[in-house]
Amino acid sequence: MKFITLLSCFILAYSCTGKKQELTAQQIINQAIEVACAGNCENATMDFTFRDRCYVSMRNDGIYRYERITSDSTGVTEDVLTNSGFTRHKNNVQIKVADSMITKYSNSINSVIYFAQLPFGLNAEAVKKELLGEAVIKEEPYFEIGVSFNEEGGGTDFEDTFVYWIHKDKYTVDYLAYQYFSDGGGIRFREAYNPRIVNGIRFADYYNFKPGTIEVTLTELDSEFEKGTLKLLSKIETESVGVQLTNAN
User: Fold this and answer.
1) Does residue 109 form part of some domain?
2) What is the pTM of this model?
């Protein structure tokens, strides 16, 4: 990995007095969210199709409602996750769901919405951010940000860890890597492609890669990516994206 440690080279910005100042992980994330959301993500309704299911995310100043709608030969199943909890309806009739499945379904919906709205979710209260240093990928310069979660408020997957590569000039999230521990665990690396702006909010699709071994750190995956050692597993595509702003800026 083309990596410059913070001990050898500080990430610098100039203040109005001309003095050099070090950017923090929080400042970098804030700028990335501004580029992606332009102040719109907290008050917007968005919908998209992912793997033949329709997802809807409605946010209004901290109040949220996530929907996943599945249509098949048996009818329409609507899963709804809000600040108050999870419910499921089958053909407009609410059905009881076992507690263990509520956790599974809630995590699945959260995961899809989380990745679709990146980097917006990185300012949640449970998120811990660390500036790891800098990297160069495909001859482009990046900040390398490590992300972990507090147990309180971090959900059932709070032990998962992430690394985000944020472009130093554009402040776009072009690459990310994560280690997860559910379903046997694993490590993934994603490369963003097809970026587009829909009604003021930036979306991207991702190539989803897997390393040949789990004996590799997340911060080494950009180097493995450039060497071509990662295996392409799938494409993460959000299709037919629509956005309606609740309070347009």
Assistant:
1) yes
2) 0.85
